[in-house]
Amino acid sequence: MSKQEPLLRDNKDRFVIFPVKHNDIWDAYKAIEANFWTSGQIDIQKDLLAWQELNDEKRLFLNKILCLILSSEKNLSGLTRKVSKKINFPEARSFLDLQLVMENTHTEAYSMCLNSLFNTTQQEEIFKEIEEIPATAAREEWIQKWSNSTSFAEKLVALATAKSIFSYSSFATIFWIKNCGLIPGLCYTYETIYRDKALHRDFTTQLFRDHLLEEISDKKIQQIIGEAVAIEKEFIAKYLPLDLIGLKTKSLTEYLEYEGRRLFTDLMLNRSLKEEHLAKENLVNKRAKDFSQTNKTDKDFNKISKKTDL
């Protein structure tokens, strides 16, 4: 498959990025380049003051959210690397190389916020609690399963799914906290990271829809997405103490289901149009072939035997 897949084929004749051959991919790269940021831009001084006004329940909730997101992030960079190593479009490699740098920035930003608000003992207690949740092992197994798939299409779908599903429930709760006017530095951080993840997700779906020839069934895509949604639902139901901030489990699970449906639609949009066009093209070719067989040429008629009973 890799020898036939243009996205994975060696580009030994391309020594520099110019002239750009895949303008849509290059435009996506320039978009994330324009949004590049560093952890030095985060101001958490107001957060330290606001922290004193929070009750113990909200502090516990934020500790759980920060640790959960850091826990989910630790394996996602490995998934990005496995995809990046396979791709040989220079434009796409530029995007994915920068994406890896941005993911490192995200981890640094998470850690900075966590260390500013919680001591080591508090962090260790929450991380230990997360490791003991069955959903944590299920998520790691999911990442290993799909990142090690022999199908590159499945790897791409998994990467887009990870960016769309894992930790998005945590982001939703952070946005809820933002609407309450609490912890502005942390909220700004997650708003920025949310934007980055959306760009990464959209780029992966773009590669899948517009630059991949490998066929993959709707059922397989739904399986990959559905497994991730089920895992994230378990985190919501069994780990996040939503009652502490007045959020309902049903609201977050419905949000996750919506994200899953939206991702499936985005992945299949252009590919469905391609398949429809290909089906029409095949039908036209078949009809033309049938027509040529039933409507013989003069040369064909000359081959007909003249020995008849008439």
From TrEMBL:
Transmembrane segments: none annotated. Its cofactor is Fe cation. InterPro entries: Ferritin-like_SF (IPR009078), RNR-like (IPR012348), RNR_small (IPR033909), RNR_small_fam (IPR000358). One of its GO terms (biological process) is deoxyribonucleotide biosynthetic process. GO terms for molecular function: ribonucleoside-diphosphate reductase activity, thioredoxin disulfide as acceptor. Gene3D superfamilies: Ribonucleotide Reductase, subunit A. Pfam families: Ribonuc_red_sm. Belongs to the ribonucleoside diphosphate reductase small chain family. PANTHER family: RIBONUCLEOSIDE-DIPHOSPHATE REDUCTASE SMALL CHAIN, RIBONUCLEOSIDE-DIPHOSPHATE REDUCTASE SUBUNIT M2. This is ribonucleoside-diphosphate reductase. It comes from Salegentibacter salegens.
